[in-house]
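Human: Here is a favour to ask of a fellow structure person. Comparing notes only helps if you start from a blank page. I am asking you to supply a protein in sequence and structure-token form. Write it directly below this note and I will take it from there.

Assistant:
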Amino acid sequence: MTAYLPILLAFLLSTVTNAQTTDGFHMQTEEDDVQVFVREEANDDMSVRVVTIATTNVARVKATLDDAESYDEWVHRCDGAYVVEGGLPDNYIYVSGIDMPFPFRDKEVVARINQWVDEAGVLTRTITATPEAIPASNRDRLTTYFGEWVVTPLKNGTIRLQCTVRTDAGSGLPGWLRREILTGGPAETVANLRRRLEAAK
């Protein structure tokens, strides 16, 4: 046992360090095997990173993320989404509505998707706000929105899901609603995605 003590201590220390900060992120919650990290940004923005493990494969994740019309079934507060015509399979514009409680105005994201799979089989998918890509609507369109999905294949038919989002969607909102949208929303979205992927086996 004594021989393994230094290894055990090193492991515990690295675990605590990772829980406190990952690239400037600090762990906020961990529930139902979903870890939520946050980082405050300038101008009242916030970055949120959500991590979990799912029993599925990278191809199924990519197909689900590309199916924008099904977002309202698992993305938090989404009330409709679609892909704008004219793009490429791995480079396109999509629109997603955000249903807000009364009396707040509904919001929407118009963003460009770029995605690729590297030699190790890791899917990286970036989401960058492009608010001028289509004409204005009657919703408040987010001007600050950047997201990144990193889907890493693991052993035994599992994958690591990591979703990072930076947005100003909570700007000007009361604290309870800001927390729900900026931290609770991504956590619920990733948990819903994991359940959806695993149910499709």
Remarks:
- The two ends are 41 Å apart (CA to CA).
- The chain is about 25% helix and 35% strand.
- The CA atoms of residues 180 and 186 lie 9 Å apart.
- Residues 1-18 have pLDDT under 50 and may be disordered.
